[in-house]
Amino acid sequence: MATLWPIVRFEWRRMMRNFAPVFFALAFPVLMLCMFGGIYGNEPSEKFDGRGTVDMSVPAYLVLVVAVTGLMSFPLGLAEYRDRKVLKRFRATPVDASAFLVAQALVNIVLSLLGGLLLVAAGYLFFDLHLPASASAGAATVGALLLAALAMYAVGGVVAAVAPSERSAVAIANLVYFPMIFLSGATIPLQIFPPAMKTISDALPATYAVELLQHAWLDGAADVALDLGVLAGVVVLGTAAAVRLFRWE
């Protein structure tokens, strides 16, 4: 534990110098919210069962936040270090090698938390966002977000494990990330998708994360058992695959 925090501090400083993950985790969701909130406002809409666009968007954008750290920043950081032989050198030191992975995960999770807080604060201050109606709804939302984050990090771990190089990791991560955010309801509401696109969205774990978060936050209609089962399955299978396939060099 004594060696973990210096590594965490180093990784945090390194993260703060990396423009892409900081921008897409902290600023991009807020910009999306301001853009679409400015266009549509937060007036109740029949399309969203009487809820406002911002009320529907914020729980979905939370998936956007954990997806950028879990599917992009986390695996690309590991792939970069492996490609540059940093992981190999790290294993030659007396420090427990798992501390490095824990530090990477902690830094990205903290970045996700900051991004989520900024998003909720922007929605509340600028668009009259309705918060979860009760303490139990708030707790359910936090639990749903945690499960969604674990699922994204499990998939990201698989990306880091199977990518043979840093360059290929970038390609694989982009192939996974962009369909996950644009076809899952995380950025564009599923309610306006045609049937064929909804069929495609059913194959994406992020779809179930969006539905579960919107259900927890807004008490909306959802097959909670299915959402929980899919996300838990992704966490278990993805983590097992990542641990099995991960290479230090």
From TrEMBL:
Where is the chain membrane-spanning?
A: 19-40, 60-79, 100-127, 139-163, 175-193, 224-246
Q: Which domain of life is it from?
A: Bacteria
* Domain ABC transmembrane type-2: start-end pairs: 20-249
Major localisation: membrane
One GO term in the molecular function aspect is: ABC-type transporter activity
Keywords of this protein's UniProt record, alphabetized? Answer: Antibiotic resistance, Cell membrane, Membrane, Transmembrane, Transmembrane helix, Transport
Q: Enumerate the Gene Ontology biological process terms.
A: response to antibiotic
According to its record, how does it sit in the membrane? Answer: Multi-pass membrane protein
Q: Where in the cell is it found?
A: Cell membrane; Membrane
GO CC, sorted alphabetically, is: ATP-binding cassette (ABC) transporter complex
- Asked if the keyword Transport belongs to this entry, the reply reads yes
Q: Which InterPro entries does the UniProt record give?
A: ABC-2_transporter (IPR052902), ABC2_TM (IPR013525), ABC2_TM_bact-type (IPR047817), ABC_2_transport (IPR000412)
Q: Which Pfam families match?
A: ABC2_membrane
Protein family: Belongs to the ABC-2 integral membrane protein family.
User: What's the protein called, per UniProt?
Assistant: Transport permease protein
